[in-house]
């Protein structure tokens, strides 16, 4: 019998997973997450949506090196917001 533990995403209580079945909670798949998010039964009953998430720190190149955008000065942050991203077409000859 394989037993694992995971924490509830909202309250942090430890959930037990025995043989692939979650005891006292649920495992949820959310768009943008590569792994399931676990919630205890109480937190899931209160709110089925994902909240209490950690914001993503964005890095970008400025003056030749990578640096978190939130550490840039206000002018550079505003310039970053106006940038346009382009998707390059793949070249079938390059495989």
Break the fold down into its secondary structure elements and pairings:
Elements: E1 3-7, E2 14-18, E3 21-23, E4 25-28, E5 37-40, H1 41-46, E6 59-62, E7 65-68, H2 74-82
Antiparallel strand pairs: 1-2, 2-3, 4-5, 6-7
Structure description:
The chain has 95 residues and is α+β, with helices and mostly antiparallel strands. The chain has a domain at 3-46. 16% of the residues lie in helices and 31% in strands. The strands form three sheets. A three-stranded antiparallel sheet has the order 1-2-3, with no helix packed on it. The radius of gyration is 21 Å and the shape is elongated. The model has no long low-confidence stretch (mean pLDDT 80).
Notable characteristics:
three-stranded antiparallel beta sheet; two-stranded antiparallel sheet; 95 residues; 31% strand; 2 helices; 7 strands; alpha+beta; single chain
Task: Give a brief rundown of this model.
This protein is an alpha+beta fold. 16% of the residues lie in helices and 31% in strands. It has a domain of 44 residues.
Q: Can you write the helix and strand succession as a string?
A: EEEEEHEEH
Q: Give the integer mean of the pLDDT values.
A: 80
Low-confidence stretches: none
Strand content: 25-35%
Rg, alpha carbons: 21 Å
Number of helical segments with 4 or more residues = 2
Give the strand tally: 7
Shape: elongated
Helical coverage, percent range: 10-25%
Q: End-to-end distance, in Å?
A: 46 Å
């Amino acid at each position: 019998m394989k037993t694992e533990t995971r924490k509830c995403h909202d309250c942090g209580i430890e959930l037990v997973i025995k043989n692939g079945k979650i005891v006292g909670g649920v495992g949820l798949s959310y768009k943008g997450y590569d792994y399931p998010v676990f919630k205890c039964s109480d937190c899931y009953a209160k709110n089925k949506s994902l909240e209490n998430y950690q914001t993503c720190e964005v890095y970008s190149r400025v003056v030749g090196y990578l640096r978190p955008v939130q550490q840039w000065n206000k002018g550079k942050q505003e310039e970053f917001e106006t940038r346009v991203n382009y998707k390059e077409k793949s070249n079938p000859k390059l495989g």
